[in-house]
């Protein structure tokens, strides 16, 4: 079984050098586009304590989480991991790395022998160090080539998604 798991944050976000209010998070939009293209279930990692609406307040918390290696609590995901073989894992690039809520999620699940296709949204730094971190957290998983998409361009990412899926023969592997 193949699934899409992602974490996303709506509300105020940094987009094209400005703070804008998003009704739907960029990573969620990207996850839904990939899910639609592949006709896969999409599952969201939801924090039990939501991040603040205000961008600067949220980023202060995110930065603290990164420095102190906090483990934000998330709602349990109803997934039978014994049936899962392939995961599309989506997240925003926060401060050049994986959000701590995604790190915590990855630490709670044994993804050994699973295939992971990472995708992220960003505003200029692509994956940053996220892929290195992902491989360290999941050393026995098969981490494949990922798809970074600028959050400000996520609405127009259909061609990038199609090219990623085709170029790396992803649809043939799942």
UniProtKB/TrEMBL annotation:
InterPro entries: Flavodoxin/NO_synth, Flavoprotein-like_sf. It comes from the Bacteria. Residues 24-165 form the Flavodoxin-like domain. Pfam families: Flavodoxin_4. PANTHER family: EXPORTED PROTEIN-RELATED, FLAVODOXIN-LIKE DOMAIN-CONTAINING PROTEIN. This is Flavodoxin-like domain-containing protein. It comes from Candidatus Enterococcus lowellii.
């Amino acid at each position: 079984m193949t699934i899409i798991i992602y974490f996303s944050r709506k509300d105020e976000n940094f987009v094209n050098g400005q703070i804008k209010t998003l009704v739907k998070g960029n990573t969620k939009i990207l996850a839904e586009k990939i899910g639609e293209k592949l006709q896969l279930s999409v599952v969201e990692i939801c924090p039990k304590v939501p991040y603040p609406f205000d961008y600067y307040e949220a980023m202060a918390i995110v930065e603290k989480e990164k420095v102190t290696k906090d483990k934000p609590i998330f709602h349990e995901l109803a997934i039978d991991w014994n049936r899962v073989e392939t995961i599309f894992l989506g997240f925003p690039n926060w401060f050049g790395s994986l959000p701590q809520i995604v790190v915590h999620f990855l630490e709670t699940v044994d993804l050994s022998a699973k295939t992971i296709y990472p995708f992220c949204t960003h505003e200029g730094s692509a994956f940053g160090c996220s892929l290195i971190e992902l491989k360290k957290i999941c050393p026995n998983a098969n981490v494949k080539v990922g798809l970074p998409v600028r959050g400000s361009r996520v609405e127009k990412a259909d061609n990038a998604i199609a090219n990623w899926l085709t170029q790396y023969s992803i649809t043939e592997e799942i």
